[in-house]
């Protein structure tokens, strides 16, 4: 199982598609459960919670999640499922707490970090967004997705210099990332370093000449430069 988990972590390093990372993260969770089996009663309670939510029986669903986690208080996947439940009913405070518990007990839980990140992002709480992924990095999750999203968060805080650092880290992990080149171009444009902005927009065009986004940004950059003369 260890070799399989190592392969999954290697995929995380360079993968820029969250849905692919989520699928492999679920495989990692399943492997963890094989290595450390969960009591059958917990699995049953979680399945009942999901069915109760489908029937719109939200209070009983909430109770089932709580019962499951009383039996298995360090079960990261249980907290993750509870967090998704709270997120769906717009109870963001409990959702955040659940996701934080998930990555507390499973420090490599990339999907839990992402869900927590998105929940804080809905509230435009960029300080906590940054804290989530800074924690992820400190626990060894030095992946493209983590660095890229930190860059986005620092742009949200109007800190393009720090954003550039993390976008460059993301690009170092995946040099063929169209999106990281675009974001670096935008960050340098915000700092009025138009030469570097042009360089990264052109990099993006080289990676995918048929895609319009970088061409539009480069056109806009030309307009900005003409207006500034």
Structure, described:
With about 230 residues, this protein is mostly helical. The protein has 2 domains: about 1-140, Serine Threonine Protein Phosphatase 5, Tetratricopeptide repeat; about 165-229, Alpha Horseshoe (Serine Threonine Protein Phosphatase 5, Tetratricopeptide repeat), CATH 1.25.40.10. About 80% of the residues lie in helices and about 0% in strands. The chain is built from 13 helices and no strands. It has helices spanning about 1-15, 20-35, 40-55, 60-70, 75-90, 90-105, 110-120, 125-140, 145-155, 160-175, 180-190, 195-205, 215-229. The protein is elongated, with a radius of gyration of 21 Å. The chain starts with a helix and ends with a helix.
* Main beta-sheet annotation: none
**Overall morphology:** elongated
CATH class of the largest domain: Mainly Alpha
Residue stretches low in confidence (pLDDT < 50, at least 5 long) are none
The CATH superfamily title of the largest domain = Tetratricopeptide repeat domain
Count helical runs. 13
Protein topology:
Blueprint: H1 2-14, H2 18-35, H3 40-54, H4 58-71, H5 76-88, H6 92-105, H7 110-122, H8 126-138, H9 144-156, H10 160-173, H11 178-190, H12 194-207, H13 213-228
Helix pairs in contact: 1-2, 3-4, 4-5, 5-6, 6-7, 7-8, 8-9, 9-10, 10-11, 11-12, 11-13, 12-13
């Amino acid at each position: 199982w260890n070799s399989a988990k190592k392969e999954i972590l290697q995929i995380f390093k360079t993968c820029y598609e969250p849905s692919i990372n989520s699928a492999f993260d679920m495989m990692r969770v399943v492997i963890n459960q094989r290595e450390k089996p969960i009591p059958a009663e917990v699995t049953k309670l979680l399945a009942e919670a999901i069915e109760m939510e489908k029937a719109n029986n939200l209070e009983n669903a909430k109770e089932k999640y709580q019962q499951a986690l009383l039996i298995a208080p360090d079960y990261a996947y249980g907290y993750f499922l509870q967090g998704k439940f709270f997120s769906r009913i717009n109870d963001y405070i409990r959702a955040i707490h659940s996701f934080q518990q998930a990555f507390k007990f499973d420090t490599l839980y990339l999907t839990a970090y992402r869900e927590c990140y998105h929940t804080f992002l809905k509230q435009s709480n960029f300080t906590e967004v940054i804290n989530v992924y800074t924690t992820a990095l400190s626990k060894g999750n030095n992946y493209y997705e983590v660095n890229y999203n930190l860059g986005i968060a620092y742009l949200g805080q109007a800190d393009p210099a720090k954003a550039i650092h993390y976008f460059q880290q993301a690009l170092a992990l995946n040099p063929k990332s169209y999106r990281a080149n675009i974001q670096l171009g935008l960050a340098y444009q915000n700092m009025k370093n138009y030469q570097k902005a042009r360089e990264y927009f052109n990099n993006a065009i080289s990676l995918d000449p048929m895609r319009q986004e970088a061409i539009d940004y480069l056109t806009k950059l030309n307009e900005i430069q003409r207006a500034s003369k």
